[in-house]
Amino acid sequence: MDFCSIGSGSSGNCIFAGSDQTGVLIDAGLTGKRIREGVEQLGRKPEELAGIVVTHEHIDHVCGLGVLARKYHIPIYATEPTIRRIRQIKSLGKIEESLFRAIRPDEELALGDLRIRPFRISHDAACPVGYRVTDGNNSVAVATDMGCYDEYIVEALSGLDGILLEANHDINMVQVGPYPWPLKQRILGERGHLSNEHCGRLLSEILHDQLKTILLGHLSQDNNYPPLALATVDSEITMADNPYRGDDFPIAVAPRDTCSKCWHF
Hints:
alpha/beta, 7-stranded mixed β-sheet, 14 strands, about 30% helix, globular
């Protein structure tokens, strides 16, 4: 199983996951050119992708969708409410109806030798989901854009080999920053984004000896910075009621403008 962030941040998100035979993108929130270059950097071809699975319709997750669909005819998988919203985004241009494939949370999708489970997340979008991807031997997951988590999320993220998890903001930076109050409420609310602190607490509930890599993703450009996210997550793990310390695991921040390291499990 290969796992790589092509780009992740408040301005755009695209993640690659795949076996030797089958590759998928989780979101396409970068330019088509950047996504193509990222996929080719992994030694893959965009036209050979089995699909793009979309978490939700916000533009930082779909802005490259139209270009990729038109150029490479890649199927697009998303919940039906998300598909309806995507069709309304004029900046994406026309996308062939036949490329859209509706999925449902907790109903497993088979693409080649990959099995993909969408799971519900709490965010201010039509019907947002995260994704867990397995090739039958190893599993990875992407979970961003969620204002809170519960036991359902903990279960969906259990037993992974790799994860990209949201560490969007520092709570204090949001509170004292220049954003208008309604936007602050949105970010900090239960349908907003996961803070550094809550990212660390969620990780503390899913850590296990076989977890091989942790990527912190979807960092805010205005309300966070990588060393702070890493230090906060490390501290939360170390202080939690579990047998681990933060430095027991390889934790890195997914770059905003370049590909991360590609992990092979």
